[in-house]
Prior knowledge:
This protein has helices at residues 27-36, 53-61, 88-103, 114-121; strands spanning 10-11, 41-44, 66-74, 80-84. The chain is of the alpha/beta class. Helix 1 (27-36) packs parallel to helix 2 and helix 3 (88-103) runs antiparallel to helix 4. It is globular. 28% of the residues are buried.
Amino acid sequence: MITRPPTTYAELHCLSNFTFLKGASSPEELVEQACQLGYKALAITDECSLSGVVRAHKAARQTNLQLIIGNRFVLEDDLTFVLLARNRRGYGQMSNLITLARRQAPKGHYLIDRQLVEAQVLD
């Protein structure tokens, strides 16, 4: 294992294998790799899901890596964006947005538009 000195670099968009067919590595593997590269922080930003953050949190707790919780969304008009939670309130807003987006679609999918984002995140 190669250990590198810590840097100020933080990866702010990273998909785990919980984003099916897009992310390949497990949250634990992503945390391990970020630590090996000397990253200061890592944002797990799975698509419209918080599924990977629990495992990432458990792995990051055993290191000096700061875990940032985020999400990637694709709007109905194909605009793609990433939200990062700055605090517990932001985490709650993100969780609520995911719930509302998933409720509007068949199981395994989500529907989100600009109005829903503005109503939930920008209040």
